[in-house]
Amino acid sequence: MKERHGQFIKMMLVTASVTVGLISVAGTANASTIYHRSGIKAVKSTAMYSNSNKGKTYHFKGSASHFIFKTSHHLKNYHHSTWTKTKQTTVKHGHHSSTYYYVKNAKNGAAGWANATYMKAGKDYQMGNAKNITSKDYIMKSSGKVYQLKGNNSWFQFKEGKQLSSTATYAVTAQRSIYKKGKTAIYYYVVGTDGSKGWTWHGYLTAGDHQSAVSTGVKPTSSNPVSSDGSIHVNSPKDIDPNVPGFYTYSENANDSWTAAGNKWSDKVRALLAKSENETPAEVRKEQISYNSRGQKIDWEGNVIK
Q1: End-to-end CA gap in the chain
Q2: In a designed cystine with 169, which of 61, 209, 233, 235 is the match (CB 3.0 to 4.6 A)?
Q3: What is the rounded (10 degree) CA torsion for 195, 200, 204, 205?
């Protein structure tokens, strides 16, 4: 009887030992921290961006057949920037599998593996080189801002936005492509009569110009009535009446000789207009010098100066 009792005790001890072992293995598997993956494949470099607020990039810690994820970065901290994808792998756990991209960020070089579901193809907050274009005058078409671009072509920020003015004329001298969330937008570099200088989306502008000169105490004539802003607006510099002192405005166009380039606002002309408030039209006309299409120096009436 004692012998049987001893056997029973031994059996219980062995059974208990096996049970403990099974519980330990089962607990490790259910923790969902052990993964395996396919081989890493190099892919064509592709620009990507992410709008995710919960996604992360990871490092794989371990071997291809047995590894865990280690967080490297939170995607929410990299909105408005571009990632470049260079590698790809498939991560598996149980019956589930997901594609992961190896990505590197243009903002600060952050890198890691990100789930493909959090990434979208395209550039975000990158830009192309500025290209000089023939200067042309524009006015505001719809509400927008003029910005300074801080950064470089790989990553930049919009800074110091100034509202476009509905009464200002903007000379466009350059343009560049700006990429946001996979889409391309054309931005113009503008110099405004309101003192603004910077970049604005081309869709906010339309070709045209405004009267920009104002004075007081001008006398109207039948051919040159006084505008509501107190200036005398004429259709041509030749219409200036030397006997009527005042401040004149003139809407230039591509065919006139108001400036050397024809269809752009000249800083020299602006300075002359500002000075002319204390001069007669005849004095202003005598001082105005420009150039024709042949590069010849001409006076305000278009006569060649020898």
Answers
A1: 138
A2: 209
A3: 60
Q: Give me the pLDDT at residue 243, please.
A: 52
Amino acid at 286: K
- Backbone dihedral region for residue 154 (phi beyond 0: left; psi -120 to 50: alpha; all else: beta): alpha
The structural domains of the chain, with segments of one domain joined by +, span 36-121, 126-207, 232-298
Burial-class residue 162 by CB neighbours within 10 Å (0-12, 13-18, 19+): middle
Q: How far is it, in rounded angstroms, from Cα 154 to Cα 201?
A: 19
| 3-state secondary structure (DSSP) of residue 25 | helix
CATH class for the region spanning 126-207: mainly beta
Q: Which two tokens stand for residue 9?
A: 């005790």
Dihedral in degrees, nearest 10, Cα atoms 210, 215, 219, 223: -20
pTM of the full structure: 0.60
Its sign, for the CA torsion 144, 146, 148, 153, is: positive
pLDDT at 244 over 70: no
Over the stretch 42-89, which tens digit does the pLDDT of each residue have?
999 999 999 999 999 999 999 999 999 999 999 999 999 999 999 999
